[in-house]
Amino acid sequence: MAKHDPNEPPPSYYSASMYPQSPLKGHEAYVYGLTPPSQPRYIPQYPPVVVVPQVTQPLPPKRKSRCCRNNAQCYGGTGGIFLVLGLLALAIWLGVRYGTRMGSIFYSVEDGNSGYSDDSVFIPKHDTCPNTTIHCDGIKDCVFGTDESACVRLGSDNKLEVRTAEDGRFLPVCYSNWNKMYSDQTCAQLGFPSSYETKVLSGYSSKGLTMTKQDSNGYIQGLASVTSSCLDQQTVSLQCQECGRQQSVARIVGGEVSKLGEWPWQVTLHNQGSHVCGGVLISRNFVLTAAHCFQTTDESSLDVGKWTVYGGVVSLNALPQPYQVARIIINENYDRNSNDQDIALLKLAAPVDFSDKVRPACLPTYDQQWRHGTECVTSGFGTTDAGSSSVSNSLRDVRVMIIDTEVCNSPRGYGGSVTKNMLCAGHLKGGKDSCQGDSGGPLVCENNGIWTLAGITSWGSGCGEMNTPGVYTRVTSVLPWISSTMMQAML
Fold first, then answer.
1. Contact 286, 346 (CB under 8 A)
2. Neighbours of 113 (CB within 10 A)
3. DSSP H or E segment with residue 403
4. How confident is the model at residue 201, as a pLDDT?
5. How far apart are CA 38 and CA 32, in angstroms?
6. 8-state DSSP, 293
7. Which of 392, 439, 458, 461 is catalytic?
8. Nearest alpha carbon to residue 41 among 320, 455, 351, 350
9. What's the rounded mean pLDDT across residues 289-299?
10. What's phi and psi for 255, nearest 5 deg?
11. Which of 104, 292, 303, 458 is catalytic?
12. Active site residue 439
């Protein structure tokens, strides 16, 4: 949560030489893979590995990669060639062994498996499906059911929208004939164990869906039929869990120590006993974090047995009982070079008990937007002083402003490196920002006392520098992946 001089070695909780960095900003963690355009914001703590430097894009010198703390951390010359060849060989080997199964990757401890065993690695995106498969018809054709995923979404005011094979578009669901069973089924398709609250929305006069069948084991899209209009113009508003509420009212701060219960969705991810990245609790069973926190080319970094998650924490010196990790699920579309779609999902071994200290952040609706200048908050255990050699023992938070992508991508800023799947937040004058050790943590925005997850700390140039604010994974862009992956992981 502080500035950092890119010409100085990036601070890390562990030895920086232990892990390559990826382009993160905000809550930093080092990214695995080929050089991203900027510095990642996580702190790797794995056994020594060859560090891959980040290739500097045609941007100002200040965008020097954080993985290059010293020459030993950056590959170059023949060493770089051997590393690239090694990675290429690994990619070919994985392709031969797993073929089209490499998509979202699940690393599981079930049946004693971890790493790359056949039972623990599979990719929903490249599911096995017959040629007769019809998407969203309520009939599971694919092995992992991906033909029936991403058929449900929530819009403004939590308006339920479902896509059916009958129409092919997302349509609102009429409130008439709706009941608790349908609510629970729908939330299960979004990856939640049950529903929390169902309300009526009025004033919808166009085409919708009405429930015509009942099947507690069926997909909701297979139980509805298209209707020209809803009775009394009423549609369904659905909430799957209570979320986004704090124990105490947040104060306006700038890099200050957080109170217990103030950011109850903040978690810390530890690898073999040390803080590596931040994370965000989004349900009793799942935590979101950054994909670059995991070095997919190193099996040991993907061993779920080496990872633990702590919630309800404001001090690394006072850790409660940890949550064990059952699966590490990395977005199959994550690009290590650009850090695009930098998102990963952790399934916990057992459901979390919510309390005043531990609560989930709300996921955004698919159409939710945050305008330029909107004030939000990012938090984490990242470094507090530029050039520091250790992360903060205390959870800290800082108010930042949403910055329009066009502004963030200006020649003086990131020069086009910020994609549509990213979100910029900070201050163009610098000063307030997330930093190394914050990667994977939350960027949340408040409305009427409810905090919604807008971004996941990903990368940036330095910390708190002028014209280069923190860059976050835009959560609305990866919502379909989050909901479909949660649903599949719960099966």
1. yes
2. 15
3. strand 396-403
4. 97
5. 13
6. G
7. 439
8. 455
9. 83
10. 75, 35
11. 292
12. yes
Radius of gyration of the chain, Cα coordinates, nearest whole angstrom: 22
CB 116 within 8 A of CB 145: no
Structure tokens at 275: 């803080």
User: What is the DSSP secondary structure assignment for residue 246, as one 8-state letter?
Assistant: -
β-strand pairing of 396-403 with 208-211? unpaired
Question: Distance between CA atoms of 227 and 156, rounded to whole angstroms?
Answer: 21
The residue whose two tokens read 């502080």 is 2
In 10 A of CB 232, how many CB atoms? 13
Task: Tell me whether residue 141 is one of the annotated catalytic residues.
Answer: no
CA distance 151 to 483: 10
Q: What is the pLDDT of residues 333-372, one digit of tens each?
A: 999 999 999 999 999 999 999 999 999 999 999 999 999 9
Is 15 a catalytic site residue?
no
Strands 375-380 and 442-447: antiparallel
Closest by Cα among 268, 266, 269, 220 to 244: 266
| Count of Cβ atoms closer than 10 Å to residue 97 Cβ | 12
Helices 479-490 and 180-189: angle between axes, nearest 10 degrees: 110
Query: Average pLDDT of 193-202?
Result: 96
What mean pLDDT do residues 212-219 have?
A: 92
Tokens, residue 356? 């005043």
Inter-CA distances, 360 with 14, 47, 136, 256, 357, Å: 28, 32, 29, 22, 10
Which candidate in 342, 397, 433, 438 is catalytic?
A: 342
Could you give the count of Cα atoms lying within 13 Å of 157 in the half-sphere of its Cβ? 10
Exposed (0-12), middle (13-18) or buried (19+): which is 140, by Cβ within 10 Å? Answer: middle
Q: How are beta strands 450-460 and 442-447 bridged, if at all?
A: antiparallel
Task: Match 């379909």 to its residue by tokens.
Answer: 480
Q: Which is higher by pLDDT, 304 or 5?
A: 304
CB 265 within 8 A of CB 280: yes
